[in-house]
Amino acid sequence: MDGGEGGPTLPSMPVPLPDERSVLLVAPDAEEAALMGRGIAWAASPTGGLADLQRFLLEALFTAMTGYDIDLSTVEPISAHDYALGLARRNLAFRSRMVQVMLLAALLLRPLPSEVVARVSEFSAELGVDESMIAVARDFAAGSLGLAAFDFDRNGYTSTWHPEEAAAVLHTSRQLEGAWDVSVTDAELAARWEALGHLPPGSLGRGVFELYCARGFMFPGTPGSAPPLLAQHDWVHVLADYGTTVEAELEVFAFIARANDDMRAFSLLAMVISLFETGYLRSGAGLFESSPGHISGNRDVARRLSDAMRRGALCHDKVTNSDSIDFLQIDWFSVADLPIGEVRDRFSVPEKSLVALTAGSVGPCEPGGISPFQLNAGKELAAARGEPYDSYGASC
């Protein structure tokens, strides 16, 4: 095992979880935030220290999530056991988030050193956290990219996929055997999506309809469409006011993953990082194709991603009175006719920060909210239908 100075230490038992009387449930203070950052940075550091991108993302994330600025230009080593002792009063959910941020930073590395994965695994064990995405990181480090893709499905968000339950939420006329299966011959489903165009302007469903038309997206149930489960995230583009460029996809999945207290949801963020930054995955979610370099190529994306995680963490469903929301399992058609503002209020969606707005975060109906490919596809679809094209405010 890796000790605080890089030398071996003897294995130890995980630091016990606190009981109900001693558990700490308040936000971290400056001292604890510094400890959190130190441990996360040390766990994810390759030989020679944090990569510039790792440092930039972690510092942006800590500012967004804790309100404290931390300096990770130099990182003092800390043993996994001492780190876990420092978080002894934190519950399993809090500790799990720490491990996931370690993994998030580690997954920015290509190649991913095996010693980084081993150190994250050691920290996870000392914290008493069983994080399934460590197996995926281990695959990446070993160069087993095909196995990693398999492990995403086996250990991640879709590992508990239940076709019979999903059909009721996705409104498919038949059960989908796989989470990312495409349904291209479902006339009833397609008609349901098409009918969103008859809803009042300003409603959530009308916003989704306009998003699809502007980009030439095919409605679920028709050839060329996205898997119905993936189409669920398109509602979040409108709900949370994110465009549809690759950079905005990173925001959307950061928002979705952090809003869900089921720790397996982190795999959704790990997936898009592996698709759109490192390229470890060639494809994902039944539709996305690898397009690496979108964070390292534009550091503002790290600020936008960090703010999306902040917003997701602050969401609260006023109907179910829950702070944990699985936005991919919402029956969106049940709220499609409501004004967007009313649905945002139900889920307590916070406004974007000034930092994110300054960094270029835009909505689907704003300049910069659409890619050139999507704009052309929208124009071609409108021409094929003999209709005038409308981008609904989006432009490249």
Report on the architecture of this protein.
The chain has 396 residues and is mostly helical. It has two domains: 102 residues, no CATH class; 222 residues, no CATH class. It is 48% helix and 1% strand. Strands 1-2 form a two-stranded antiparallel ribbon. A hairpin with a 3-residue loop joins strand 1 and strand 2. The longest helix is centred in the N-terminal third of the chain and has 15 residues. The chain is globular. The N terminus is likely disordered.
In short:
The protein has 396 residues and is mainly α.
Topology at a glance:
Blueprint: H1 30-44, H2 52-66, H3 80-86, H4 92-106, H5 114-127, H6 133-142, H7 145-155, H8 163-170, H9 187-194, H10 204-215, H11 228-239, H12 246-259, H13 266-276, E1 283-284, E2 288-289, H14 300-314, H15 340-346, H16 354-358, H17 372-384
Antiparallel strand pairs: 1-2
Helix pairs in contact: 1-2, 1-4, 2-14, 3-5, 4-5, 5-6, 6-7, 10-11, 10-17, 12-13, 12-14
